[in-house]
Design a protein that fits this description.
The complex is a heterodimer of chains A (279) and B (328). By secondary structure, chain A is mostly helical. Chain A contains 13 helices and no strands. Chain A is globular. Chain B is mostly helical and 328 residues long. Chain B has a single domain, classed as MetI-like fold (Orthogonal Bundle), CATH 1.10.3720. In chain B, helix 10 runs antiparallel to helix 13. Classes of the chains: A mainly alpha (279), B mainly alpha (328). Chain B: This is Carbohydrate ABC transporter membrane protein 1 (CUT1 family).
Chain lengths: 279, 328
């Protein structure tokens, strides 16, 4: 397709703007993480005059960042494993079988994704507090409680995405397995799951990312022992001076694992994400 | 984990306490799809259905801080909670209405801009050029970044005296005052636009991603046929690209609308616990009214109203867009 000259100019202009817009915060984060405190407290300077890695050392002692890291890891990991495992079976049922209630189930799963988190937060908070009072099972403030609240968004998402992914795997494959003597469950575990490993990994990464970045539930459902990074990071700003260099260093440290995972697996992720949306 | 594994009763019809082999024989009678769905359905009931019923129930109770530990003792309120938050002559009603309008404006601005940037980026990146792969990867980074890390960085950039934004706009471009005249971004009228900018920064890559995928599904020969008919670049964009993207855009708009309208994270991290009223989105307003004054009945009533509003808009949108699809 030949294109007029204005389009190639528009391309440079628009993509240049978008690149700049995207980069500026990333640059601000990196550059400020390498500055001493007094340099982030003065006027903004593009090029750090004094480079230091001290913020990366200090972040661990200013607040209990390592504890928050572990909490985030456990909660996000558990929510991911739980939702993906359960979703594999449900998605297989939805993508391979005709049965009564199939549509009802799909529509319910799809629609719970649109519900505001705040709608579940208040009742879950109340239920957790009351369960704690009447049975002694501590859910409010515990990691388990937080995992349960995270399932409210990660489970429907995983079911929806995996159903789309499984549907793209030819049914002839499972039928061939059945001819070879596999039951339907065997076909799922030996054929469909291995064939969709990229999709499952992508969904897992995405579920993990969402849990890792979650703020609303974490800010209500955690106490000082179970606080996640999303809430804990804000403690740098409650000091007398805001340690912006440390805030930026910590933001960088908590971002690198998920961004790296995302970029490594983006091809699968994009394929999976869009399979659901574009269909 | 005991709470997670409660059986869903309607799937296994046998009421008796069966032995292992009997259980297995019983389960053999249950169609496989239902067995596969069993854990998911049980969890869905536990995490979605029960909380929703409780939430609706809460909205009809006078659930103040005295009754949070034992909500069965809370007196009924009938429709009082709804009447109270919908009475626009009182402070509570006015605050709800104000935050509703802020949310509507925020959603409109943020979704429109994210869609515009996403479309422009995706369409202009259709053609191969040097550095295309790198640029695409860069554009995906905001989407991958943990949301609070990104928003905290923006909060730093919006600082009045030490931030990058005032440095660029004031010192470099001379568009705003400097020193004592420098504008505040995180309080007052500007805070609304600060919120929109952060939200667009975060959401446009998603639009970009989805539209890129939609573009890949447009058959090339449509463009060739259009070119033979003498259609120029813009005409091809209007007459081939846009109509072919319509189904993708319909889903995209809905998803962006729901995300943005329900957004809690952006204002909460950008401004802290108490955002300026110009940027107090509805989720944050409900959160504040519930956990600051500990009146969960009011909070629940507002959540239910929010849900009803979203259901209504979504149903209307789906009805209109599916009707249009059958006409075209």
């Amino acid at each position: 397709m030949s294109e007029p000259r204005w389009v190639s100019w528009a391309r440079r202009l628009v993509l240049g703007f978008l690149a700049l817009f995207t980069l500026l915060p990333l640059y601000a984060m990196l550059a400020s993480a390498l500055k001493p405190l007094r340099d982030v407290q003065g006027d903004w300077h593009w090029i750090p005059t004094r480079l230091t890695v001290e913020p990366f050392v200090e972040i661990w002692s200013t607040i209990p960042l390592a504890d928050y890291f572990v909490n985030s890891l456990i909660v996000s990991g558990a929510a991911t494993v739980l939702s993906v495992t359960i979703a594999i079976f449900a998605a297989y049922a939805v993508s391979r079988f005709e049965f009564r209630g199939r549509n009802l189930f799909s529509v319910t799963v799809l629609s719970t994704q649109m519900f505001p988190g705040i709608l579940f937060l208040l009742p879950l908070f109340l239920i957790f507090v009351n369960i704690g009072n009447s049975t002694g099972v501590v859910l409010y403030g515990s990691r388990l409680g937080l995992v349960i609240t995270y399932l409210t968004f990660s489970l429907p998402f995983a079911i929806w995405m995996l159903a789309g992914y499984f549907a793209s795997i030819p049914k002839e494959l499972d039928e061939a397995a059945k001819v070879d003597g596999c039951g339907p469950l065997g076909a799922l575990l030996r054929i469909v799951v291995p064939a969709s490993t990229p999709g499952i990994v992508a969904v897992a990464i995405y579920a993990f990312m969402t849990a890792w970045g979650e703020v609303l539930f974490a800010s209500v459902m955690t106490d000082s022992d179970t606080r996640t990074l999303a809430v804990g990071l804000q403690e740098y700003s409650t000091q007398v001076d805001v340690y912006w260099n440390q805030v930026m260093a910590a933001s960088l440290v908590v971002s690198v694992p998920v961004v790296a995972g995302f970029l490594l697996l983006q091809r699968y992720l994009v394929a999976g994400l869009t399979a659901g949306a574009v269909k | 984990m005991t709470t997670l594994t409660e059986p869903a009763p309607e799937v296994a019809p046998d009421p008796g306490p069966p032995s292992r082999t009997r259980l297995r024989r019983r389960l053999r009678g249950v169609p496989l799809p239902y067995l596969l769905l069993l854990p998911a359905v049980a969890l869905e009931l536990l995490i979605h259905l029960v909380p929703m019923l409780v939430g609706v129930g809460m909205s009809f109770l006078k659930l103040t801080q005295f009754f949070i530990r034992d909500w069965s003792a809370a007196p009924g309120a009938g429709l009082d909670n709804y009447r109270f938050v919908l009475d626009f002559d009182t402070a509570a009603g006015r605050a709800l209405l104000a935050s509703f309008w802020v949310t509507v404006r925020y959603t409109a601005a943020s979704v429109a801009l994210a869609w515009l940037l996403g479309t422009a980026g995706a369409v202009l990146m259709q053609r191969e050029f040097r550095g295309r792969g790198w640029l695409r990867t860069l554009f995906l980074v905001p989407y991958a970044l943990p949301m609070y890390a990104a928003v905290i960085t923006w909060a730093f950039m919006f600082q009045r005296d030490t931030g990058m934004v005032n440095s660029v706009l004031g010192d470099t471009l001379g568009l705003v005052g400097t020193g004592g005249d420098a504008p505040f971004w995180l309080i007052g009228d500007n805070s609304f636009w600060a919120l929109v900018v952060v939200s667009v920064w975060r959401n446009w890559p998603f639009a970009f991603l989805i539209i890129m995928a939609g573009l890949q599904n447009i058959p090339r020969d449509l463009y060739e046929a259009a070119a033979i008919d003498g259609a120029g670049w813009w005409r091809q964009f209007r007459s081939v690209t846009q109509p072919m993207l319509r189904p993708v855009n319909q889903v995209l708009f809905l998803v962006l609308f729901l995300w943005t309208f329900n957004d809690f994270n952006t204002p909460y991290v950008l401004f802290g616990e108490s955002p300026p009223k110009e940027a107090s989105l509805i989720s944050l307003h409900i959160y504040q009214s519930s956990f600051k004054t500990w009146n969960f009945g009011l909070g629940s009533a507002m959540s239910v109203l929010l849900l009803l509003f979203l259901l209504l808009v979504t149903a209307g949108y789906l009805a209109v867009s599916s009707r249009r699809r059958t006409v075209v």
